[in-house]
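cache lookup: miss for this entity combination. No prior model stored, computing from scratch. Input as submitted by user K.M.:
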Amino acid sequence: MKSFMMRGTKILATGSAVPDSSLSNHKMSEIVQTSDEWIFTRTGIKERRLLTGVNQSVADLAILASRKALDKISMNPQDIDLIILATSSPNDLFGSASQIQCKLGAINAVAFDLTAACSGFILGIVTASQFLQNGSYRNILVIGADVLSKWIDWSDRSTCILFGDAAGAAILQSCSKEDNSILEFQLNTDGNYSNHLSISYQEEINPHPILNLYQGSFKYVVMNGKEVYKFAVSQVPLSILKCLKSLNISVGDIDWLLLHQANERILKAVAEKLSISSSKIIANLSKYGNTSAASIPLALDEALQDKKISHNDIIVVSGFGAGLTWGTIIMQWKSY
Ligand code: UT7
């Protein structure tokens, strides 16, 4: 626990949402040259959900997930002080969080987007907990939501098989230090490798004839899968160990390992490196693929619905991805 903490953070409720439309590996093999066998053995993914239809955006999924979380505790949206939307696929480059604020009727909340790709929810929770622990705000809605299907090159089999669309939300509240759930965190970025995973802005060849100004547009997800894999398997265990060390607890104290759902092989390799039993891994990527910022809150919400997690369980939560950015939060789950 950070010594300068004045108050604690508790997680009151979670919610999640996925689109109805599902795309199986078999169907995928009609779109690109691949097979169910290749995808499943390399990633553990069987199917993913895609946000189809006209005028559907990340905001729609985020609102659905948020409403479910609010409904669970019958919270009035007007009691929310801050909304943090972690997304890399907004429907407005100025941010989508304000659309969510408006549609939820959270009229007293300030709202902003946070861009940190697959680590976005981790960064969102850590950011929110600063406001809660220093007493600035009482209730914060943190959402991780992405619709990377809109940013995928559907002819690139090395990326299109991986991603799915989803949203997950958590309502955090300021509490006494004794009830604090966010015990420790550890965050990192290494921009040297930002080119390993990006949706880069590409300029047109010719500038504006008078202004010498180059305009352009964002293209598709481009990833060096092998390098991202190696980075995740080497850095995530180190981040977890640092976190455990500063809390002065051991690997044996961990009840659940909740990692960004990128690839089942990564989840298993991280657990193995730390000698954590595979029975402690929370995984749902076979059904949803890699849902970027949504993957952690979606898996957390599902694990809670399945009643896997008990009061006072220690959950190690790690995110990793574009940036490259990665980080860990150690939570002690409190049931209310
Ligand atoms: O959320 C952000 C974090 N992202 C990640 O964590 C992704 C991490 N990386 C990975 O999960 C893996 O690297 C992948 C699943 C993306 C790829 O697995 P891999 O074992 O690293 O495969 P590879 O890229 O080395 O490709 C092996 C072979 C290649 O063929 P050759 O060159 O050996 O003939 C690829 O062309 O597999 C081929 N390949 C495919 N074959 C069938 C690549 N994609 C496919 C595909 N279906 N979808």
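stored under new cache key. Residues 182-191+223-332 form a domain with the Peroxisomal Thiolase; Chain A, domain 1 fold (CATH 3.40.47.10).
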